[in-house]
């Protein structure tokens, strides 16, 4: 029988060889050799970055499979389920950190505003070969953490800030005016959606949170992401349903209850409408 849910790994599950730290940095090949179980589906209670320098494979995040190749930079937020298929020659870097580690020095909403953590945009950047700034930072961060150094925690935190800020520049050119406002509204919508998708599934509810009309929120989403707000809400609900169906032993009725559906039959119709098959058929395909 399947476990109730995929394991959720804590930061302390990955002790660095130099001793406990409030972060984890390692070469990708070294990481996979020390912790081979990470090839199986699992989630984390922390944030992580994965940068690939050599090798090619597949990386599945929340049931969506992405190409993994040199120059790939993946971003995962707490709770996302992922697994990968990697060749023996894969090389790169992994960086793990908790929200508390970042927020201790950089408080405020910035961590939740990064576009690659909003649950709406793809969680990967495919960087061109000419882009060496982020790779250089990762190499120096990796070297910094090989042994204890004075003020190392602050140095690592500063490197992390630089990595996230410079990576965010690759998502899109900084917007100004109305475009900047639209992107801010999209980020806020993404945060709200991750908080409330189990209880709130109408555009009007999210629009009220944002002090917008439902029509305006739909228009902003369509302009920035080429999807309606309604489509994004349904996608978020279906992704969570797929996680539970694929990685847990919960019955369909229990999955429905977990996602806030009072009627399992309605959940079945909802899932079939937006996923293209019944919950039972989806589970059978992903056993």
TrEMBL record:
Residues 187-285 form the HTH araC/xylS-type domain. Pfam families: AraC_binding, HTH_18. SUPFAM superfamilies: Homeodomain-like, Regulatory protein AraC. The keyword Transcription regulation applies. Keywords: DNA-binding, Transcription, Transcription regulation. The keyword Cell inner membrane does not apply. One of its GO terms (molecular function) is DNA-binding transcription factor activity. This is AraC family transcriptional regulator. It comes from Hymenobacter edaphi. The lineage of its organism: Bacteria, Pseudomonadati, Bacteroidota, Cytophagia, Cytophagales.
